């Protein structure tokens, strides 16, 4: 008797369910599949973005390294320029001294020549 009551109850319930219930189950299944697909798409986008972040970080590191190298090279060039300017100033000073010495010797030569002319040999 219990079994019959259970079967009758199941039959009534199944017969009483409209086709919409079965349709809504398939719609829910479809929505679930779409949600899963969106979730997968989001995960794929997240993975792509993370790989792009890693790529950009590598590029930034390379640019930082290049900047450090360029800065070091600039420091070397500045030092070389300072050394060259110091040598130029030293050379200009030596040139001025040499010109002054030449002018002094030329004046002495003119004086000797004048004296030799005036007194003979």
Q: Can you walk through the features of this model?
A:
The chain is mostly helical. The chain has helices at 2-16, 19-119. It starts with a helix and ends with a helix. The mean pLDDT is 89.
Specify the number of helices: 2
Rg over CA atoms: 50 Å
Main sheet record:
none
Element-by-element helix/strand order: HH
Low-pLDDT stretches are none
Shape verdict: rod-shaped
Q: Could you name the key traits of this structure?
A:
2 helices, 121 residues, mainly alpha
Question: What would you say about this model in short?
Answer:
This protein is mainly alpha-helical. Helix content is 96%, strand content 0%.
Topology, pairings included?
Elements: H1 2-16, H2 19-119
């Amino acid at each position: 008797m219990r079994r019959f009551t259970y079967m009758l109850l199941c039959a009534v319930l199944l017969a009483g369910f409209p086709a919409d219930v079965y349709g809504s189950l398939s719609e829910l299944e479809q929505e679930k599949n779409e949600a899963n697909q969106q979730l997968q798409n989001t995960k794929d986008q997240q993975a792509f973005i993370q790989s792009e972040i890693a790529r950009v970080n590598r590029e930034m590191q390379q640019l930082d390294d290049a900047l450090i190298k360029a800065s070091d090279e600039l420091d070397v060039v500045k030092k070389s320029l300072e050394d060259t300017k110091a040598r130029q100033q030293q050379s200009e000073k030596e040139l001025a001294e040499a010109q002054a010495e030449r002018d002094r010797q030329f004046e002495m030569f003119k004086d000797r020549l004048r004296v030799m002319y005036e007194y003979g040999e």
